[in-house]
Amino acid sequence: MDKKVYEGFMSDEVTDEMLGEAAKLFSENYGVWSEHAAERMGKFAKAGHPIRLSKERLRNEYLPSEISSYVRVTVNGHLAGNAFACRWSIDGRTICWITQLVVHHDYRERGLAAGLLDEIRLDGDDVYSVMSSHPAACLAASRAYKRPIDTASLEFMKDNAQSIIKASPVGYIRDAKLRGRLFDSEDTSGLVSSVNTGFFVDHAEPLEALAWVRESMDWPLGELLDGHEFILILQARRRSRSRSSSSRRNATS
Ligand SMILES: CC(C)(COP(=O)(O)OP(=O)(O)OC[C@H]1O[C@@H](n2cnc3c(N)ncnc32)[C@H](O)[C@@H]1OP(=O)(O)O)[C@@H](O)C(=O)NCCC(=O)NCCS
Q1: InterPro entries from the entry (predicted)?
Q2: Cβ of residue 207 lying under 6 Å from some atom of ligand 1
Q3: CA triple 225-213-206, angle to 5 deg
Q4: 101 within ligand 1 shell (Cβ under 6 A)
Q5: pLDDT digits over 88-109, tens only?
C-alpha cells in the first residue's frame, strides 16, 4: 500500500529547499502557455512551453505574510502535490485564499488536491477562496470545505467577492477583475463566476475536465474563456466545538 504523508508549515517554517522542490513541481506539472500568451503577456510566454516559477517568486508572491501557509503531500517519499494559502482579514473575518495548488501528473485523480486543501485549513478561517482555470481545483475546494459546489452560495460570492479581492495583500488577486453574470446581470459571455486575470495558461486540459464534469453535474460557475479563471468563495463550516457549544446553549435555553 502507498505511504501518503501530508505536512503543513506556516510561512516562517518554509525553507528554501522546500520552495526549490515546490518550484520544480510547479514548473514540471502546472501547465503550458496558450497560443495567445506571448502577444498578451510578453515574449517569455512561448506557446506550448511550460509555465515556470522560481523559489524567490514563490516566497514573495505566495507566502507574503506570517499567516500564509504551505502544505505538501509525499507518496512513498516523492513530492506528489502541494498548496499555498495566504490569509487576510476583512470586517473581522479571516479569508484563507489558496494561492497555488499543483498535483504531479502521475498522482492526479486520487483525492490528493482535496486532501491538501483540507490539510491547509486552520481553526479561525471564516472564508475559503480559490481562483483557478481548472474545475478540479474548485471541486477539490468544495470537497475539502464540505460545501458541494452545486449548492454553494452564489449570493455570498456575489455580495463579498469584490471587497475580499480588494483587501488582498497579493497583487495579482487584488488586480483580478470580476467577470460573469453573477457580478453583472448584463454579461452575455457565458461566464458566471470568473475573474479576468490576464493569465494565458493553455486551457485544453481544464476544458476537457469541464466537459467531463458537466456530464455528471450542473456546473454553476459558467464557461471558461482565455485569460480568465473561475472564482469560488466558500464560507467555512464551523468545527464541531462551536456546534456542540451552540447545541449546549440550545439545550439549556
Ligand atoms: C487541479 C489539480 C490540482 C487537481 O488535482 P487532483 O489531485 O487530481 O484532484 P482530486 O483527485 O483531489 O480531485 C478533486 C475533484 O476534481 C475531480 N477531478 C480531478 N481531476 C479531474 C479531471 N481531469 N476531470 C474532471 N474532474 C476531475 C475529482 O473527481 C474530484 O471531484 P469530486 O470531489 O467531486 O470527487 C490538478 O489537476 C493539477 O495540478 N492541475 C494543474 C494545475 C492547476 O490547474 N492547478 C489549479 C490552480 S489553483
Answers
A1: Acyl_CoA_acyltransferase
A2: no
A3: 40
A4: yes
A5: 999 999 999 999 999 999 999 9
Please give the average per-residue pLDDT across 164-192, as a whole number.
96
Is 221 touching ligand 1 by the criterion CB < 6 Å?
A: no
Q: Where are the alpha helices (DSSP H) in the chain?
A: 16-29, 37-41, 55-57, 112-119, 135-144, 154-166, 171-174, 204-216, 240-252
Residue environment code for 45-63, b if the CB has 16+ CB neighbours within 10 A, otherwise e = beeeeebebebeebbebbb
Class of the CATH-defined domain 4-237: alpha beta
Which amino acid, one-letter code, is at 18? Answer: M
Which atom of ligand 1 lies closest to the CA of 102? 39
Nearest CA-CA partner of 170 in 92, 58, 93:
58
* CA 175–ligand 1 middle distance (angstroms): 26
